Amino acid sequence: MITTAVTYDELADLIKRGAGVSVDPRELERASDTPFGILGLDSLGMLGIVGELENQYGTSLPPDTERCRTPQEFLDLVNSTLKAGA
To answer: 2 and which of 59, 66, 68, 86 could share a cystine (Cβ 3.0–4.6 Å)?
Structure first.
């Protein structure tokens, strides 16, 4: 059972590992409605992050996950999916 949600700290780490873009977790949280493109993250980076999460949690995420435009939208979708699958 999934007992924790993906946090801004974890998302910042995933962005660094999956896309090679360094983002401060506090800044990411403050800028939660800022488009990923403004933060330096492109669609290939998003695919890497989605793949990491699917491997980490052993579950598939919805096909539109990599099309999320902002950190908040992404975390809302990922966490609701993980919670529903728990």
So the answer is: 86
Backbone angles phi, psi at 20, to 5 degrees: 75, 20
Residue 56: closest CA among 76, 78, 29, 80? 78
CATH 3.40.630.30 for domain 8-85, yes or no, is: no
pLDDT tens-digit series, residues 6-61: 999 999 999 998 888 999 999 999 999 999 999 999 999 999 999 999 999 888 99
CB 6 within 8 A of CB 82: yes
Computed on alpha carbons and rounded to an integer, the radius of gyration of the chain in Å comes to 12
Between CA 56 and CA 54 the distance in angstroms is 6
